[in-house]
Amino acid sequence: SVEAALAAGGPERYWLRSPPGAGVAVAVTGSSGAAAAAGLYRYLRDFCGCHISWAGQQLRLPEPLPRLRTEIRAAAPGRYRYYQNACTQSYSYTWWDWARWEREIDWMALSGINLAPAFVGQEAVWQRVYRSLGLNQSEIDAYFTGPAFLAWNRMGNLRGWAGPLPPSWHLKQLYLQYRIVERMRSLGMITVLPAFAGHIPQGILRVFPRVNATRLGGWSHFDCTFSCIYLLDPEDPMFQVIGTLFLKELIKDFGTDHIYSADTFNEMTPLSSDPAYLSRVSNAVFRSMTGADPEALWLMQGWLFQHQPDFWQPAQVRALLHGVPLGRMIVLDLFAESKPVYQWTESFYGQPFIWCMLHNFGGNHGLFGTVEAINHGPFAARRFPNSTMVGTGLVPEGIEQNDMVYELMNELGWRQEPLDLPSWVTRYAERRYGAPNAATASAWRLLLRSVYNCTGVCINHNRSPLVRRPSLHMDTELWYNASDVYEAWRLLLSASAELGSSTTFRYDLVDVTRQAAQQLVSDYYLSIRQAFQSHALPELLTAGGVLVYDLLPELDSLLSSHSLFLLGRWLESARTVATSDREAEQYELNARNQVTLWGPSGNILDYANKQLGGLVLDYYGVRWSLFVSTLVESLNSGNPFHQDQFNQAVFQVERGFVYNKKRYPAVPAGDSLEISRKLFLKYYP
Fold this sequence. Notes:
By secondary structure, the protein is of the alpha/beta class.
């Protein structure tokens, strides 16, 4: 049941109790739907030993359902538990249908999330606005990117790349958005809608030639072919016209919960560092919100402050934040587990903020966590002098990886003090697999202390040689003891006879085996490099041969045995959205480009790398094969190895993969347990 027991802005609560009589095992009451759902998951997790995650669920309920001896009351220490990053929309959700969205929203509710963006379908509304202002379709088509890159179009980084958006795309996304906001609100979540940040298509300048707009510089490694977007001057009257028009249209379609998101300077240097200018920009964005909704609150990603600290000095940060009345903005301290901004901005100079765990970049695979930082960071932020913290958040760029870290962070959102992590992770393993097991408990405690416990400034970009363009200067540094992962691999395999039927166990065995193989690739790379630099051709042929002809194919077959590690699943989900063969080809090119070249010429090469069956063999494997054969040729001929020449040659291989039109299976093949055991017998050090 849901009780409106909340004064606006107070902490959320839930109650669990077992009423007298035999009819009901437990009654769950919450101050909102999301709070009640969190209470339900607490009961399932702590009293029934159940587990729900991206990798699967373990829902074997005890018979009869356990009754509670005493009532349990819980109050969240902060008002909000936030979820999603602007980039997740492209790295993870791009091709989702309603069934996948519904599952995610239900997981959000059970995880206690009560604040999240609803960004889907906004391009359809923008198209209506642009047409009403007088733009023609070709001008709009030249502005929107393809589906896999919309996150960066929305933040003013990119235009046109991998586009345009077909009419059917807009219709399908609108249909999804109606269902998404309805489902989120029915579960008591606050939806965050997009707002106008000031970026405009070039067509606006044709229709309104006297408008005051300036072209921003190129973003990342893109030149002005697909970047350099126009930014409206905050004083120009059209700023308010466009911003208010868009928001009114959006609210007319989807209603509102009065919280809006806009990022004007995401990884873009402002035109001036003058504090007065920065205040005018943030004030203009906020006024365009209140023009449509007088109750508007602005939710802003705080990534820009730590991304360009040389520009965002205290005076500039204060100016941008104080362009909005205190309390009418919420800042996401986006990378607080590694680079918290609240500490050097006096708690965002009085604006409320949410302590966020970013954790993942680009949706990369790779075991990683900063468990000590997230177990203590939120509590330290609450104790900070004059703290304005109003909640915790999960803001990964990509999901469906490292379930444990997200389960931990979600639980901490309801805690008043840190957890005892070794005993927590022991219970986690038991719930995840549905049975206590000494080997899996030991494996998880090893992973917890090593790969999941990066300390200091940790940036989880997978830089393993496996997923990077080969060179003689590759990074093989680890923040943990590699032998701990090998030992965890051995322990998990030893439990496979007992737990092999568990879907979550099979996923974890594949994931840990994949991590071990990733470490082995680094070892073989170092042998290859050493052999080349020592002019030892037999050793080079041996190490290169094992890597290219055995280890990488074996890893590919392992990944191909699990549905969540299939390239074909990603590509087929893109094709399924299409309504014609032409659209299917465009969407598949979007999907392939994002996980490889990320741009027409490898502009952000391998940023969104994934370890997927099909990709390892036909993309990473072919690169490594070319690298090894180039080194062998260099030793044979006596000609030095030139990285520039290799880069040109390997780019043809990379681009060839994007356009090869090969269909990859979307259904797994082979037995994950057998393949893992085979790899183990060959390669366990």
